Amino acid sequence: MISFFNRNQKEEPQRAPREDREDKEIVFSKAVKAGKRVYYLDVKKDRRSDLFLSITESKRKSVTEDGQFIFEKHKIFLYKEDFDKFEEAMKEVLDYMRQAMPAVEPAEADAPAESETTEPEAQAPTEEA
């Protein structure tokens, strides 16, 4: 009689933990700090060596009893076939927002409140079209 229960099981190849695999794939990275949030723009390689963009928002949410921060993370992956569409949409949205809102210099967003500054900042040159 043939026994089907004693078959040799194929062993699954050991894989590195997901975090280790992701770290090895990053080929270029840029971080943007914005208050309690940090945005990471990571260029990564997939298994076929194609590049894609991973955008991660990391937000500090709270502190544990032992003083450790807890972070909430959100990720977006952008692949090469969508680069042009995403770039055009982003440009259009940012152009709209710049026209609809009063100008805010990036340095002003992270600067301390007015009462904490000692000298007024020099006026930025106007932007050429």
Structure write-up:
The chain has 129 residues and is of the alpha+beta class. The protein has a domain at 20-103: Nuclear Transport Factor 2, Chain: A. 24% of the residues lie in helices and 33% in strands. It is built from three helices and four strands. It has a four-stranded antiparallel sheet with strand order 1-2-3-4. The termini are far apart. The relative contact order is 0.09. Mean pLDDT is 76; it is low at 113-129.
Low-confidence stretches: 113-129
Here the CATH topology of the domain at 20-103 equals Nuclear Transport Factor 2, Chain: A
Average pLDDT rating: 76
Main sheet: strands, sense, barrel? 4 strands, antiparallel
Order of helices and strands: HEEEEHH
Beta-strand residue percentage: 25-35%
Q: What is the 3D form?
A: flat
Total helical elements: 3
Please outline what is shown here.
The protein is an alpha+beta fold and 129 residues long. Helix content is 24%, strand content 33%.
List keywords for this structure.
single chain, flat, Nuclear Transport Factor 2, Chain: A, 129 residues, 3 helices, 4-stranded antiparallel sheet, disordered C terminus, 4 strands, alpha+beta
